[in-house]
Design a protein that fits this description.
- This protein is α/β, with parallel strands linked by helices and 798 residues long.
- It contains 19 helices and 31 strands.
- Helix 5 (274-283) crosses helix 6 (306-320) and helix 15 (578-597) packs antiparallel against helix 16 (608-622).
- It comes from Rhodococcus koreensis.
């Protein structure tokens, strides 16, 4: 599917590492091979035995390693009946011949694993719920005995097959476990070394990220400690925790005594989530953990991770100062959702601000103009959004980019302004041909990674996930594999292109490799150290060389090629749902309006930006992709819904905290032009500028008093010039708004009565005045003529 465009976009493949992935998912149980004559397949339902691999020795084979492969594990009866004659054996399939085979080989019919060893009895009887350990060993090669018959370096799929006889049934293959074994060189006499004539150039991302932890809907403060929804991050940062181990593995692998020539350090780049850094830095000052995440301002207790956060953050600063460091989008935000909301401030929080946050917290200068979407893919609208004054490089899966030339050539993306003509109904647009010297302004370049390698890395750890870019035919239940087996698959995936130069050349795959784990990676210490050790071994053996990430950014030499983006349906399914996007689109204008109305007092420690920033960040956190592709998806969705709801509720409270206080009763004006006195109250900790909106009836004129500033957590009397031309009781409605008309608080109705009598009083007064003038004039007239005034006749006689 071609990229849907608002404007024409072209994509540059700066480093492509593979051909498109194609995996055929097979049944977990297939007919047993001819070597198992006399056995038959038992239906998948019910299940009887569960096979678990605990250890593979050696995990990677070299010319100096043990020439015997040993696999240890356990078999457990998970059925409802006893199983007898439980036995296991080791089998091998042909070496992986293509990148896509890194996943397809793990789901092949078991008959394709045609190099087999002897069955080894695990137990004569295995009752319900009972488990038994086993150890299988087989030589890599032998001229006389059974062996794995591995005579050349490569990546080999291995399978442990378990047979048994359930009660009321016949002998059958009841389960199997598969994994990859990378062979750098074959030990023995003579040893077979690898081909190091064309080493692969390796660039490796090392992510430090976590799901959002800060309690939602809590505005910024300079006195109150931050609140977290739980204290799991304290455990993760402390000794033996996930983030401690990820950081520790990178520290150990790049220390001077281990990485003397800095080859591994040069190939690594720390990719840090700014939301994690904000959270950890706040934890170092002391923090609270809420008792109920849905009530962020409710009861809370002191967190226990202050010291662990301080120690971890200091270690992160030390490590970041020695190597490439970059940021990922804030809280691993869904960039397609951010783009759809289309709010500039929200986009800046998710995409632009992270680099500055990483720099400020870690004290480094991180990479700029580099974007790694958590989804591993981009849609056209997001590619358009990422255009800037300088060329932007996006790290995406190679199967999300459609190119017409071999994948080992340079490709360049040009993002041009939206066309004047409407986009066709099918969503496809025509990209203009690239020139030999394209302008860097407004372009988006693509740095590609192998989706098969990325999928294998994402399956590592305690909480495996399947990335959105993994083709549907390559997706299968990762819980069927043990953590050890998934680690072996990852080791094989990162080793394949170095061990199969001829296959890589034939497929048009360049001699380069991007090692891209998921941003929220649950690999433990042993897994992380083993992976780094394997990459280091590739370099020490001459199979690989470091390729620093900064050298790949910016426009690459060579003729560019127009390319389109293929946004997979699975990415849309894994993305943030519409109601969360709608919530962000609704609340962002309210946050912006409130922020603009708040007073930026240089003398006040709490600025408007600091006060409202956590709410804007909460909306980005609600659009996080963390845990949306693994077994914790439901809890991630619930947390996202809670966060969006809490922001909306907090904004309602903030807007309701600024209001006009009703005077109560009837307000009497001393005269028809007496001012009306009102009280406006601001319960926010930041001053705010408001406007008084008046809805007055006929017979009353009220003058606009203009903008009024209310002090933090204070009130102010508003003197409102008023002219009443009616003595009746009049109801006047008052409300406060921001400068752009956003209503604050609830409207207030005031009943006003004036001492003015209106037109009737004016007529009576005029008539009385005229009569008085007439009578006074008549008296003066009579006196002037010396005549007595008839009105005085009664008084003269007395």
């Amino acid at each position: 599917m071609a990229l849907r465009r608002v404007g024409a976009v072209t994509l540059t493949a700066l480093a492509v590492v593979l051909a498109p992935t194609s995996t055929v998912v097979a049944s977990a149980q297939e007919p047993v091979p001819p070597e198992s004559a006399g056995t038959q397949l038992v239906d998948e339902d019910p299940e009887f035995l569960e096979l678990h691999i605990d250890n593979v020795t050696p995990s990677t084979v070299t010319t100096t390693s043990d020439p015997i492969v040993t696999v240890t594990g356990s078999v457990k009866n998970i059925g409802d009946r006893t199983v007898r004659d439980v036995s296991v054996r080791l089998q091998r399939a042909p070496a992986v011949a293509s990148s896509e085979g890194l996943r397809t080989s793990l789901t092949l019919d078991q008959s394709r694993y045609d190099t087999v060893g002897m069955f080894d009895t695990v137990a004569g009887r295995l009752d319900e719920g009972q488990s038994k350990q086993f150890a299988l060993s087989l030589p890599l090669r032998s001229d006389t005995d059974l062996s794995l018959d591995i005579t050349e370096p490569g990546v080999y799929p291995l399978m442990v097959n378990v047979n048994g006889t359930p009660e009321y049934g016949g002998a059958a293959r009841l389960d199997d476990a598969r994994f990859l074994l990378p062979v750098f060189g074959v030990p023995g006499s003579p040893a077979v070394p690898p081909d190091i004539s064309s080493p692969v150039a390796v660039t490796m991302m090392w992510p430090l990220a976590d799901r959002p932890r800060l309690a939602a809907g809590v505005a910024g403060s300079v006195t109150e400690p931050v609140r977290l929804v739980d204290d799991d991050l304290a455990t993760s940062l402390d000794d033996g925790g996930r983030l401690d181990e990820l950081l520790g593995a990178a520290e150990f692998a790049t220390r001077e005594s281990v990485d003397r020539d800095h080859t591994l350090r040069d190939s690594l780049c720390l990719a840090v989530d700014p939301d994690l850094l904000i959270t950890v830095e706040n934890m170092t000052r002391g923090y609270l953990v809420v008792d109920d995440p849905s009530d962020p301002t409710g009861s809370a207790h002191e967190g226990a991770g202050k010291d662990a956060a301080s120690a971890w953050l200091e270690r992160a600063r030390t490590l970041a100062a020695t190597m490439c460091t970059t940021s990922v989008p804030f809280a691993q935000a869904d960039l397609s959702a951010i783009t759809e909301v289309g709010n500039a401030d929200l986009t800046a929080t998710a995409v632009d601000a992270p680099a500055d946050i990483v720099d400020n917290v870690l004290g480094v200068t991180s990479l700029r103009n580099f974007v790694w979407s958590d989804a591993g893919v981009l849609d056209d609208a997001t590619a358009q959004m990422l255009r800037g004054d300088d060329a932007t490089t996006a790290l995406v899966a190679a199967n999300s980019v459609d190119t017409t030339t071999p994948r080992d050539s340079a490709h360049v993306i040009e993002a041009t302004p939206p066309p004047a003509a409407p986009v066709p109904a099918n969503g496809e647009t025509t990209t203009p041909a690239a020139t030999e010297t394209p302008a860097a302004t407004g372009s988006v370049d693509a740095l590609l990674f192998d989706p098969s390698v990325g999928t294998a890395l994402a399956a590592m750890g305690t909480t495996p996930q399947t990335p959105s870019y993994t083709p549907q035919r390559a997706r299968y239940d990762l819980s069927d594999d043990s953590q050890t087996a998934r680690l072996q698959d990852a080791l094989g995936a990162v080793s394949w292109s170095a061990l199969e130069p001829e296959a890589a050349r034939a497929a048009g795959v360049p001699r380069s490799l991007m090692v891209v784990p998921p941003q929220l990676w649950t690999a433990g210490a042993d897994d992380a150290k083993t992976l780094l050790s394997t990459v280091s071994s590739l370099m020490r053996s001459g199979l690989a060389t470091p390729r620093p990430l900064p050298a790949l950014l910016g426009r690459q030499p060579g003729s560019p090629e127009v390319a389109s983006l293929d946004y997979p349906d699975q990415a849309a399914e894994d993305s943030v749902p519409a109601h969360i996007r709608d919530a962000a689109a609704t609340q962002m204008p309210r946050i912006e309006a409130l922020n603009a109305a708040l007073v930026d007092d240089p003398q006040a420690p709490l600025t408007p930006e600091r006060f409202t920033a956590p709410l804007r960040e909460d909306l980005v956190r609600s659009m996080s992709l963390a845990h949306r592709r693994d077994d914790e998806r439901r809890s991630a969705e619930e947390a996202s819904d809670t966060r969006a709801d809490e922001v909306a509720e907090t904004m309602d409270d903030m807007f309701g905290a600024v209001t006009v206080v009703s005077p109560g009763g009837v307000y009497t004006l001393a005269s028809e032009q007496s001012p009306l006195l009102l009280v406006a109250r601001n319960d926010l900790p930041v001053g705010i500028t408001v406007r008084l909106q008046v809805d007055a009836p006929s017979g009353m004129t009220i003058t606009d008093i203009g903008p009024t500033t209310l002090p933090p957590r204070g009130s102010r009397t508003l003197t409102v010039p008023t002219e009443a031309n009616d003595s009746r009781k009049l109801v006047v409605n008052f409300s406060l708004t921001t400068a752009d008309g956003q209503q604050l608080g609830e409207p207030t109705s005031v009943t006003v009565r004036s001492n003015a009598y209106g037109q009737a009083l004016a007529i009576l007064t005029a008539c009385a005045g005229a009569l008085l003038l007439f009578l006074a004039g008549r008296r003066l007239w009579h006196r002037f003529r010396g005549q007595p005034d008839p009105a005085d006749e009664g008084y003269e006689r007395s």
